[in-house]
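cron nightly-structures :: item 1 of 1
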Amino acid sequence: MNLENVKKSLRPSKSEEVKVKHFCQKLQDALSQNGFKTKVMLGGSLAKGTNLKGQFDADIFVQFFQNGELSDNLEKSLKSLGYEYQRIKGSRDYFQIKNEFTYEIVPVLKVENYKQAQTVVDMSPLHVKYFKENIKGKQDDVRLAKAFCRAQGIYGAESHIKGFSGHVLNLLIIKYGSFEQLLKKASSWKPKVVIDLEKHHEDPLMALDKSKREGPLIIVDPVQKNRNAAAALSFESFEKFKSSAKKFLKSPSEDFFKEKIPSLKSPYLEIIPLEGKSDVVGSKILKVLEHLQRKLQKHEFEAQFTPYFNSKVLVDIKIEKEILKGDMILKGPPKEFSKHAREFKKLHKNAFEKQGILYAKKKRVFEDFRKLLKQELNSNYVSKRVKKITLK
């Protein structure tokens, strides 16, 4: 297998970058005309030159040199440009414009170090500066790492993925020098892996707060020494990366860089998510699945949901029995809790005791799990959190 061919396939076209830079210049001109002293700069992977082909999301930072109502000041200039935009609530409100690209425009205060930052996003330009100085010549390796993780379903630090963020993959490539070296080292990782590129601490495990060193991978942020850049990574994603690294090294293939949409057998769910930030949208989907699982358990259906977050969201359903016959058994309080026990017996005349616990029989409302699930898919709780959800 030739990795050079994969690298070429992941590189974005120059025309994409030109369009984004043109938008940045228009925004800079509007801010200047409105009297604001600012610097408009690219953020994220576009700024570092590590964006993947076909990625049409662009982070743009508007760095204000003076404190004030930064979000309001930015909004004045956006209005003068005439674009339709959405103001999104956050620690400091930011803006989203959707046309050919999805622009997320974030107001930040110019700071020299993390102690001056009012919100975490104020540090973003310092991160960009660090990476531009340290990632030169390794952009293709970062793209390989991103595509590799995305194909394994472990790309992104969002709460519904708990995988490797682009930020973390950048730091790992800087640490190990190349994609292949990263895989070689990762294949023998044992938690906890500790990386401190700038040697901020003599012992990071002692220096960082307990909450920031609970995961399998600790990477001291190079420009924010009190932060573990990999804090969101789960043990499951860590082990999946290790396992995939071993498989690739044993038998390299371009398939390791291609997203796989699983072929699921019925029953499964197909979900069209709401529009919005990936973390928020994914969190809502997980809440829906937790809700459905609770409802099924309440009616004695034992089911396990396994979501796959790719270009479409599919949820595999493993259910012990799809049809249940006979009465349901309700579990009541322990007999020794006399007040609650009396109330339970009053509600259920057929109550009986087993090993000190009260139980009662109740006529089953749903014998077929599909009927129950379809009813819940149409509930207000579910419809508020996803755009569309279908039982297949």
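cron nightly-structures :: done
The first strand starts at residue 38 and ends at 42.
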